[in-house]
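User: Predict the structure for this protein chain, please.
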Amino acid sequence: MNALFPIPTPTGFHAATARAVAALAAARKLPLRVICLGEARYLEGDHHSSAYSAPRTVTLTECDSLDSTIATVERLARQDRIEIGDDSAVGFLPRLFIVHDDEQCQVLAGEPCGGTIRWCDPVASDGEARRVVETASRLRGEASIEAASNNHDAARTLRFRASVLEGRLVHPDWRSTARAALLAAA
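Assistant: Here is the predicted structure, written as structure tokens:
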């Protein structure tokens, strides 16, 4: 076998072909959109009033490649302030960045953590995806029970835990590409 041009084994050939097909499928789904789940903070009237927060989902930007999207999300996680296009909000606390492709398929998700981003590990299989959905559904059910008991902070925490878990639900077309991009970015 030539070291410069190794001849792929049948298994290696099929794996390389599968990766190439996945990369081509992903390329036609650009641009990638970065959205953010978070909490917008508001004042009750004037600046001396009490503050409250409300959950918000905000579209932040579009990128033309997965590598540039990862870099953009990492930059956003380091920022002190994220503009959400709501002049009445006095602040915005980002909780989860989610990346979707042009067909609304989930590509990646990550949780801001101390100026960095903790990427959600993409599921490896459809079976693992089903287990994630079951667990997230259970957490959302618990959140409904807490909300019905006026435990709104506990309900919000449970819903957020479910959202972070659902961040692992990367579309099958993107799973291997997302894993490879996260390994390269690490």
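Residues 126-148 form the longest helix (23 residues).
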